[in-house]
Amino acid sequence: MRVTDTSDRWWRTAFIYNLNVKSFMDWDDDGVGDLEGLSHRIDYLAALGVTCLWLAPFYTSPNKDNGYDVSDFYGIDDRYGHHGDFVEVVRTAHDRGMRVIVDLVVNHTSDQHPWFRSARSSPDSPHRDFYVWRDEIPADAPANVFPDAEDGVWFWDEKAGAYYEHNFYRHQPDLNFANPEVREEIAKVVGFWLEVGVDGFRVDAVPYLIEPGAADEHEYLRLLRGYISRRKGEAMMLGEVNVPRDEQLSFFGGSDADELSMQFDFIGNQRMYLALARQDPAPLVDAIESRPAITTGSQWANFARNHDELTLDQLSDDERDEVFAAFAPEESQRIHGRGITRRLPPMLDGDPRRIRMVYSLIFTLPGAPVLYYGEEIGMGDNADIPGRSAVRTPMQWSDAENGGSSRAARRRLVAEPPSGAYGPEHVNASAQVKDPDSLFSYVRELAALYRRSPEIGWGDYERLETGDAAVLAHRMSGSTGQTVALHNFAPGPTVAELTLPGADEDWRLVDARSGTTHAVDAKGRVSIRMDGYGAEWFRLIGPDSRRL
Ligand code: NOJ
């Protein structure tokens, strides 16, 4: 038996795919994607090699923040369908061997949630303490997460006659997690969706769920994980935690690994863009090597883009300016003074070599890969849509009207697809699925290689010497074997003079895609020719290996 085949930690080697139901596939022709449409597209995701679907909020909501403003944690936005449709999605995904996780957005509710309506109506409301109220704005109030939309985190509520806390938009009052009744209610919500069949949660805004200054700051996160694990042993929590390196380990629960199962590597993400801008992998290497050591009970999630801005908040001002200059030269492509509103391909001027190199990194760096819908076909953003919504356009299925995402009139769509080079007539899934040279086929191959190489999710990372500062070479080793990956951050071809500690002339390096074998010399050296912005994967095979 292989020790790494512990299925209760399936997420260590998951390929996670995030989508928003409303932007994916509309089956009832009202212009809004729905759960039935998604069910019909699960086979597409299975063919890509996705092993875990992450559904962005689909709950009942006034939709002032893309569904992250929930007015009923048990409800489903009726434009998307009903619980029967949801169960069909889960069942179909499970049938294809795919898990399903859903967004858990419990730092705040919508101001339309019945709890908040009740809370603001009277100081005697049974829900008053579900939220955080003050008579005066505290002197030490932090800045709002959306500084260009909100002045601060306290908003005066006429009805309540008090200020309430909102770390995000003012229509998103923060829940009071110090209140045991709130904890109980959220436990019921979590228990409900687990019983409906989900396999875990992407937990929104995690740093706001802890209680800085409390005797046990992380108590709630630990309780939540404990509860979820008791209800469903294999269920996971993937947390949105954009904090400095020295704070990250505590969100995993340290070596006890009893809080989040996974965290997005926001620092690795930001430093990857700096590395791309400089055509030098050093910032990314530093980021990977500065990760706190985690146990097998925790995992990093690697990603290139998500549904928000590409935040660069953990870079220095000079570093951020470098990335802005390279990838968002126009002010209109930036947001909140800290992020970029574009998708990856337009940032890289559509250079297919560079785009592929980025996805190869996402699938080979230690951790588990996460893709945002449309990345597998190289979708662009719609630059005419301001802010974060530029990257939330409908999935481009074909060159048909509305990119095949809906048969409704264009004006009824949730958002207009981009026009020009990134329009559906040039970028669509239907054409790419059939084309062995497409980005879709490339990503599908990466997913298959990742699946065959569990050491990327489980093993040890080691940087290798190449003699060329522009080439990042690393090895992932574990009981399942050794994967070696090379990435050339520079536009020109090169020859990487690789040194493989521990290997000698009895070993060979086998190209994971073509099967070409490279001999290793007695000192573990081998030369690999690389294209500009090239990416190569190898298996390192020793004399005792029985791997295929
Ligand atoms: C983080 C989500 O990713 C973002 O889209 C949302 O606006 C905020 N949390 C508030 O829920």
Structural commentary:
The structure is a single chain. The chain is of the alpha/beta class. It has three domains: 375 residues, Alpha-Beta Barrel (TIM Barrel); 52 residues, Oligo-1,6-glucosidase, domain 2, CATH 3.90.400; 82 residues, Golgi alpha-mannosidase II (Immunoglobulin-like). The protein has 16 helices and 24 strands. The strands form six sheets. It has an eight-stranded parallel β-barrel, surrounded by five helices. A six-stranded antiparallel sheet has the order 17-18-19-24-21-22. Helix 9 crosses helix 11 and helix 13 runs parallel beside helix 15. It is globular, with a radius of gyration of 24 Å. The model has no long low-confidence stretch (mean pLDDT 97). The chain binds 1-deoxynojirimycin.
CATH class of the largest domain: Alpha Beta
The gyration radius over C-alpha positions equals: 24 Å
Give the quaternary arrangement of the chains: single chain
Which architecture of the largest domain does the CATH hierarchy give at level 2? Alpha-Beta Barrel
Strand content: 15-25%
End-to-end gap: 18 Å
Shape field: globular
Percent helix range: 25-40%
Count of structural domains: 3
Classification by helices and strands: alpha/beta
Order of the strands making up the biggest sheet = 1-2-5-9-10-11-12-16
Bound molecules: 1-deoxynojirimycin
